[in-house]
Amino acid sequence: MRRLLLPFLWLGKVLHWLRLTVLNLLTLAILILIIVAIVQHFSHPQIHVAKNSVLWVEPRGSLVYSKSNSWQDRLLQKIHPTQEHVLLRHLVASIDHAAKDPNIRVLALDLREFGGGSLTQLLDVAHALQRFRAQGKLIYAYAPEYSTGSYVLAAQANEVFLPELGMALITPFSSDSLYFKGLLDKIGVDVYAFRQGKYKSAVEPLTRTDMSPAAQEENRAWLATWWQSYTSAVDQGRGFSADTLQNYASHLPELLQKSQGNAAQLALKQKLITQIGDREDFRDAIAKAVGQKPKKLQRIGWQRYYASFAAQRPERGPEIAVVPIDGMLVPGDIEQPGVVAAEATVRQLDRLRHEPQVKAVILQVNSPGGDVNAANAIRRAIERLRRAGKPVVVSMGTLGASGAYWLSTAADRIYAEPTTIAADIGVFVLVPNFSGLLQKIGVGYSGVSSIPHSPSLSPYAPLGKPEQKALQAVVDHLYTHFVGLVAKARHLPFAQAEKDAQGRAWSGVDAKRLGLVDGLGGMAEAEQAVAQLAHLRSGHYHLVYLPRPESESSFAQLRSWALASFGFSLPLGSGGEALTQAQLLLQYSRPYGIFAYLPVNPRLS
Prior knowledge:
Elements: H1 2-42, E1 53-57, E2 61-64, H2 71-79, E3 85-87, H3 88-99, E4 104-110, E5 114-118, H4 119-134, E6 138-142, E7 146-147, H5 148-154, E8 159-162, E9 168-169, H6 181-187, E10 190-196, H7 204-207, H8 213-238, H9 242-250, H10 252-258, H11 263-269, E11 275-276, H12 279-290, E12 299-301, H13 302-310, E13 319-326, E14 328-330, E15 339-341, H14 342-353, E16 358-367, E17 369-371, H15 372-387, E18 392-401, H16 403-408, E19 413-416, E20 421-423, E21 427-433, H17 435-440, H18 465-490, H19 494-500, E22 505-507, H20 508-513, E23 519-520, H21 523-533, E24 542-545, H22 554-566, H23 574-589, E25 594-597, E26 603-604
């Protein structure tokens, strides 16, 4: 019998040792990755910038305002690479530093793998390119094809290359979304929406089949500001009128027909580009400009170039901390892509109160809002900072809307870019009702209560009229509270604040006109203001950019890793974004969360 079992015993031993070998190799690989990440984090190699170099700007991925700086996230990125991102401030700092660097003569803008960004982000880069060119230096741009987003960067170049089969696909701005009411009706799901504010359109994707007239009016207003800002930036780079670009974007199909489909020749004729040529032609032209051979071109990548000057640690002394508020505001301490966990953010802000070297704080806000309680918790942390004698100034990026504006009202001052989508002062509650779906699939729902005929607050049964009136009363109360916060913080009469509220999103230009923000500008203006409030002289302090707040819970970190590693991908574009936003809203409604939130997807690719 033992002889019969002998092959299986040997097989068991082989499998046992094989399992141990695999586990040991996996452990060794993880340890090596951790060691490499730690070495990279703490090592700052000297990087030499050769004379007559070309700064090669080849952004891979989309622009972002902030990233997590934890070694866990860097390790996760190495193990499970996701979409690459370009940290906006690093890119802008590299271009600005190169503008004053005598070793850099030419900037090569290679946009083959650029993933775009919001208009506000793109204009930040475009303005940096303008500053570079204003120093008498040259910019060369290339892409296999130009989108609306990438072209505003290419337009700042002296020479713009496009292959003979390429295309400049520039289209007018639009705001669109998917609307799910028809689908929800078919599957038997109702969504009760209680809102306050004529223009509060966040609930519409779940309660309508199309965009309401009020939402259309609201969106057209900020889209007009966006288009004017975009055409102005392109005009400054290329030197043709806004009407020329407007005509090209509006009549592109007809223009392509007249040019017999030769999109590259059309772009050249319309002066959108200066040269028809491939990447080799682009490289050769740059080499000729600096008097070098193409194969021996002295070039340095923008990220390596950034490391060459950013590695110099600033002297110790007074600090202005820059805290990111980047994503949808949610309660709790769970990290997820695209969200701001309130507890982690509050913990980060409260820590700054007790750090003596931190004299002031800038909140770098890029958020559509979110959960009211999350917004209020962060707002109270800002108030504690100010009571501790540390001024707080808000710098709004792409979005500073709804709940993000709620928390911003606690700051000493608020700055917004002209193209920021700001304010959106309104509140809503979403309550899903799955009773129709349960009935369709044959699932019953019933039960008893400790008090007969007590109110039912279950997502598996319809809401009664008393419950509906009660939730609307809560929304009305919170809306009045929100308007009151704005009126007090902005020194406006309540009636005026309510008139400007109504859940309407305003461009930064309009927000400034209405007194909802203090000034137009970005981080530079916010820094100047907060330094003045903290009585800090220029050159006697330094900015410290803090990473995205991290959870203290190991379980929460593992959960965020799992979401990033195994979460399914949604299609790109407004459709996928709308579905993502609807999922987040329903997920965090619990099911009765109260939101101050604006559902927009302002990214241009």
